[in-house]
Please model this.
Amino acid sequence: MSNQHLAPIANDRIRPVINVSGTMTGLGASIIVPQAREAMVEIAPHFIDMHSLQAEASKVIARLTGAEAGCATASAAAGISLSVAACITGQNPARVEALPDTGDQPNEVAVQAGHLCHYGASIEQAIRLTGGKPVVVGQSTQALDHQLDGALGPRTAAALYVVSHHVVDYGQIPLRAFAEICHARGVPVIVDAASEYDLTGFLDQGADIVIYSGHKFLGGPTSGLICGKRDLVKAAYMQNLGIGRGMKIGKESIYGTIAALEAWEQRDHDGIRQRERRALDLWYETLSGRQGVIPRISPDPTGNPLDRLRVDIDAAATGASAAAVVAALASGSPKIVARDHEIEQGWFQLDPCNLHEGDEDIVARRLMEVLDAARNGALVEPDLDLKRNGSVNAYMNWAG
Ligand SMILES: *Cc1c(COP(=O)(O)O)cnc(C)c1O
Model:
């Protein structure tokens, strides 16, 4: 196995966290693959023409995605704003410089209600940042073809489609139908696929521009990538003359992203999957048979080739709630962060895709210790209201 799985070095500044929650911005996203790390160090002292570096990125992104062109961005969130802006301004530099004032240009962006998610920030705000105006299609749990069609008109600049575990996973218009309806009205379709493995399928289903995160499954530096129709990609890149400046990506991240993409092509995906499976099996065996604990292997909700272990906790039989178990894991040493988006329903998940060598054993051991403590009545029930508002409180209480 590559040194990708060496444990991080603990020092006074970096206190290691075992990440079994997924690729979380709040934990530093993902393990940056060695090839990307080396590329970033390599380019750091050099001057290069940034347009040619982005043209190089375009070639590699096009090769992997099958798109006409591509461009590296600071993040997927930046990619969303740049893509929306591209659909508003086209390749007109005066319009680019005028944003977020869209003048009399069409600036409406149709999006299904069930797709208006929060990925650490609101997707609606990523649209508004450009001067774009979200036009909501349907209700959270149901959007129909005629509602999308009715939302499109002379003021429409684009339609945005989100593929994610963050969005409502039923009652939505499938991408292929969504794209057909939009294209019949000449409206370009932007797909936010930030956290998806599939680098070709969304373009195949009719997307005009697709956005991925560079620092999720790809294991790149903090970055994003956009790919799609050449005209739109170029218009998105041109936003660096305007609102994109505050979302600048540096040479090291562009070069690191290129390296991560090339590493992705060479990656032993089956080997990684098997390794993840071994971790899941270990945790499954550790937990099965424990009273009040139901572990089960659970496939990724958007079809990424990745399973997680879902752990349901019966608080009465276990002696503590799922939230208390997760809190105890996080307050130990090393800190272990589980996937707890739906914790109030009494379950959490263990995600195996960001493990360093040996992490799975530590997690298994800590699970046993924490569940033993629960049985002895030694776990503290966390304040769920505090936890619910935790992402904001963490900023409010920041000790900087
Ligand atoms: C993570 C995520 C984003 C944001 O990606 P960044 O690269 O961290 O900006 C946007 N949309 C979805 C669906 C995501 O999962």
User: Anything to note?
Assistant: The chain has 16 helices and twelve strands. The chain has a mean pLDDT of 95.
